[in-house]
Specification:
Elements lengths: L6 H11 L21 E5 L2 E4 L4 E4 L14 H11 L10 H13 L5 E5 L2 H16 L3 E5 L16 H5 L10 H4 L2 E4 L4 H10 L4 E6 L15 H11 L3 E5 L11 H6 L5 E4 L10 E5 L1 H4 L18 H15 L10 H6 L11 H23 L4 E5 L2 E5 L8 H4 L4 H13 L2 E2 L8 E2 L6 H16 L2
The protein binds ligand KE4.
Amino acid sequence: MTSRATSKALFSEALKYIPGGVNSPVRSFRAVGGQPFFVNRAKGAHVWDVDGNELIDYVLTWGPAILGHAHPKIIAAVKAAANHGTSFGIPNPFEVTMAKLICALVPSVQKVRLCNSGTEACMSAIRLARGFTKRDKIIKFDGCYHGHVDSLLVKAGSGALTFGHPDSAGVPAAFTQHTIVLPFNDADAVKAAFAANKNQIAGIIVEPVPGNAGLYLPQPGYLEFLSEVTRANGALLIFDEVMTGFRLAPGGAQERFGITPDLTTLGKIIGGGLPVGAFGGRADIMDLLAPLGPVYQAGTLSGNPLALAAGIAALELLSEGRAPQAPEKKSEIKSGRRGPPPSEKDAYARLETLGGQLEAGMKEAAKSADVPVTFNRCGSMFCAYFTSQPVWNLADAMKSDRERFKKYFHGMLAEGIYLAPSQFEAGFISTAHTAADMEKTVSAATKVLRGL
Ligand code: KE4
């Protein structure tokens, strides 16, 4: 794509026709000040803006580009599929291939329905849980974001949190009266909610590793607790793996932490950069979906061949070089570290190595600059919070010094490093990032942090 207009000119033009000049709020830079740049092209771990600046990209279109941008096999797959038509509204072979891939890679998913976004996937999974249990209430956790579905835009994360008004205008109280919001990593709060709402809670929806208030991890045993408490109360456990799915392991966070949810929502990576969402799980639950059962869900472009061609190519690339999974020792599951010694082609081994290099370097940079930073990481997802305290939930994350984050963000951008333009977003590493990219990022951080 070539464009002679500058980011500045494009943004002022965009503001005339698009609310806030963006098609998704978090892109607007309102959380960090300044104006967004406009991208001209992207390749591998790098993007080039229309003003000619090259940046190392840690946003990766908010997670999907786990193999880097414009991977040749993904581009070729999309081009080949496009020659046969862009959408049919008729069952096509790609749908069967994708469904089989998801069921093979995510063992808890016995059946899956494809849709067009993570929001759709989460909205539909909630409806399905309510239809299956014939109960209305849903537990979510503050700081967790499950798309912009009305009933879940309550103390949501991501853009909703970034702007400081966690709830959204336009959502009638009646639409959220069945949504119970609890702090993450607090088992007692969940027990109390079930005790106070006996036989009324359809399920818990949770990001197993929350990435929409920065990044924080489940405390040891917490995800196992959620599995047990839902089962004990006849409720369903819904893992929202739109972000963690196929990122933290081929089977997502549920493989990494050894948990079997009842339903799982997916998105991002399974579209290879094109719009795809999916939700799946136990066949006895999924078979309640129309046309088999009474829970309605639909989509004009669901299963479209282009997006699935891209997603299938991505999942096949991610599965290459996977050493056969040896039976896991409990201790490895508890630590979140699983799997046999990886083969050199194993994408997940590469992501783990690069993540470890970045984490060590960033912690060293903060220490040498004497700036309090809590750097959280899980595999190839990370977040630097400007606080000396550990961050295990939203309340901890909110203690981060956002003014410092703003300066850090713009300092890194000036050094050619593009981080998420909000303290309340996760960073992502791709297999296209290199050790040299990590070194450049760490040396930039050392310089920027010293100047804060
Ligand atoms: P989409 O509707 O944006 O495809 O997916 C919603 C969603 C659901 N669940 C999780 C765990 C998610 O992270 C998301 C979307 N993630 C944000 C990034 N934090 C999307 C970025 C944006 O809104 O522009």
